[in-house]
Here is the input.
Amino acid sequence: MPDDVATRPVRLPDDRWHPLEIVFWLGLVTAFFLFPGYRVLGSQILITGLFAVSLDLILGYAGIVSLGHAAFFGVGAYTAGLLAVYGWGEPITGLFAGAATAAIVGYGTSFLVVRGHDLARLMMTLGIGFLLFEAANKAAFVTGGVDGLSGVVMWKLFGVFTFDFAGRTAYLYSLAVLFILFVVLRRVVASPFGLSLIGIRERSRRIPAIGAPLRQREVAIFTISAAVAGMAGALLAQTTQFVGLDVLSFSRSAEVLIILILGGAGRLYGGLIGAVVYMVAQDILSTYISAAYWRFWIGLLLVAIVLVAHGGILDGATAIYRRLTRGRS
Amino acid sequence: MITRGILATAVASAVAFGASHAEAQNTIKVGAVLEVTGPFASLAKQMTNGMQLYMKQHGDTVAGKRIELIIRDTTGAQPDIARRLTQELIARDNVDFIVGFALTPNALAAAPVVTEAKKPTIIMNAATSVIVSRSPYMTRVSMTLPQVTAPIAEWALKNNIKKVFTLVADYGPGLDSEATFKKTFTAGGGQIVGEVRTPFTNPDFGPFIQRIKDAAPEATFIFLPAGEQAIAFMKGFQERGLPQAGIRLIGPGDVVEDDVLEAIGDVALGAITSHHYSMAHESPQNAAYVKAYTDAYGATARPAFTSVAAYDGMAMIYEVARRLNGVIDGDKAMEIIKGMKIDSARGAISIDPETRDVIQTVYVRRVEKKNGRLFNVEFDKIADVKDPK
Amino acid sequence: MVAHLIGVLFDGISYGSLLFLIGVGLAVTLGLMNFVNLAHGAFAMLGGYSTVLVMSRYGVPFFLALPVAFVVSAAVGALLERTLYRRLYRASHLDQVLFSIGLTFMAISAATFVWGPTQQPVRVPSFLQGQVQIFGLDFGAYRLFLIGVVVVITLALGYLVERTRFGAQIRAAVDNQQVSAGLGINVDRIFCLTFALGSGLAGLGGGLGIEVLGLDPTFPLKYIVYFLLVAAVGGAGTISGPLATALILGVFDVAGKYYVPEIGAFVIYALMIVLLILFPSGLFGRRA
Here is the structure.
């Protein structure tokens, strides 16, 4: 891809919505009506999808591999959860509070992360994740430790919609938040700022030469990514009305990375597609095939996808699409 | 060929669906929320074995209805998933009972859901005291950690152990158990000469064990999650010669769970613990249980307390179904459960009508070798122990 | 006081040795071959189960079971390299992560299916249990043994990679496949052998580790952080980097747990962060 950049006239990518994108979002709306028994699962897929999108901002656009992104997800979740436990159960403000604290933690830790090379960054994020996990466990008097934070009582959304157990509000609320954030982020990555990030990923040594402050941009996108991850965490805390220590766990960090790679990094939609495929597959396999051995089949799925299509589902699909259209013309 | 295969499958599943729909009136569904995969898989395995063993022994029909067990996997300590599965089992599968829960956070997250749906819920392992108070539809057939911890403190006091060093894993259950032990032990005149909390993912106990050795207590009280941690600790305890230095090992029975005892090996010999079940418990009921378990799951399979709780939980469901003549109503079921007595393999147990928590005998046991295999041999007991809180 | 210090130092070095042993295989595949093989733990687990199996079923003594663990894991590694791994040498690191995690999931389920989810027992020979006295100080026998194994492995690997023709070929093949092939080096064979070596070391580490780490099907994920610590923090491409990292982390972790147990859980991660700040491209980074 970088080779045809030079021959193309320089302008920002156009911002029009592709028909497939519209189909995708309408599909998420339709799913609400088609599968009423799966709304809770649906809301958790949307939240995980948003979390994966946040990881995509740093991995897909700035090339920072993180194995500790749950740190920010967890900070957001605990912020929203604790607010509600201590009497402020208003969802929207809780969401922003989650994003804000996660952004602060993200900004603070970004300086540690951006300075190293790939493996060092990976280990740095992993280390930060573990430190926060241990800290939350130690601070059981605030967080509830491994027993989890219960007593999260949410007020009605806009004073109207109760968070019901069937996940009706949870699904629509998560979908709305995801969509709004997605529109914003879609704009961000298509802006000159977003393009300079891709530049960082592709040719990090040359970026300073064109006058882009590399470290600053990396810090900025890392902070934005942390804020979005925090919002996803806050969403989970609010819709589950419980916060377990697992929100900060290594396995959550690892899982979201797997989901993003599965979907395809670097195009925002990869995280969403990955979350849908991974979690639906997990649900189907563990329900209908085997509760004990479903992981074998999901492992096989991952291996097969890598062998068939490098770059995740989206890249694979694009390659197949290109081959088909070329064959026709 | 392929299309015909798919068509056949579709027809078959449609038929099956129709059949199951018609059958729905004639089944009692039990939804199990369990940690089937992940680090707690062995607990879930024991619990599944216990439930299925009961169904195998007693037939899957009671009061004219077929009992159907549906198992769903939380993948570990994942309260968000546990809560979702509970909701789905109730809303989609129309279960009549919710059971399972090896871990506290999973049970706590599900509590509001079962309360809302008025589904009788049987906690089959999770041992934090507070759980059953979170929903009037929850009961517990396993144990609480304080319940099985306090007796070892009393035993230590009775046996002239005055100075104890405590070592617990630094997480909820570890801290609960530490608090209970300290409270009971110091109230009886015992002295805590040192305490340490170990990271709860921790492969090397060497430095902690060295601290204990340097402090030279009469006994070490430990609580660690059963599994590789307990194994590593016991091995380190022997390696550094603490038993030779006259330091005894005491604690609640989780560290010498029957299922991991063989993996710990001879280094466990002499450990004294208090717990509500040992597979070496001497009673006709337990002999029958252990035999049935090994017949079903292989000669080397060892039933642990987790399997017994699940087995008794299933017995509870059968009893409720019989008494309600197959029509399960949440409130009526809970009334029957309150005060229910079960003739368990661990001895008689009952459900406290007020707290809905289990009341049972707690035994003091020592790890001994019999016929080349390791067992927790009971030598003392305290009857009718309630959760001390 | 001094005895304490020596004791802590010894425990730290032996703990570091253990970390090195379970991670050195990954240091080979990741460091030398630049392949992110997160299924490293699965090969270690395979070595562990092989050890347990040949000991309990065929009564093979521990010291013979360890080479068996090496050979079994190396053979399976070579087989998978020929059939699957080699297709991904040119793929991105992300694809390698996804692929090897997929393999790990499959291995975990398969192990659960075959051996069940419970812990496996291992009996080390009696002279490796307990402590031995040297100069009036007590040292854990198994810990001494682990340190000894590390010395042997380090010397052997160092010799193999730095001094032999095979080592030179590995380094050449990794740096530039085309040129190496042009020089008549059988790159395919070299890669297969190196991968088998990494897998075999993983299996050996698995067999040696059971005594301390236990063995159940979640092994590959439970200790993945430790594998990464050793292989990634030390700097890719060397054996001394991972060794130094493992020893430093081991000593400080043990010292932290002994002297300030209240913050024992934080020491290893905090120290890792400090190391990464001081040496962003690894302690002994060959490739920056």
User: Anything to note?
Assistant: Chain A has one domain: 35-328. Residues 214-240 of chain A form the longest helix (27 residues). Residues 35-328 of chain A form a domain with the ABC transporter involved in vitamin B12 uptake, BtuC fold (CATH 1.10.3470).
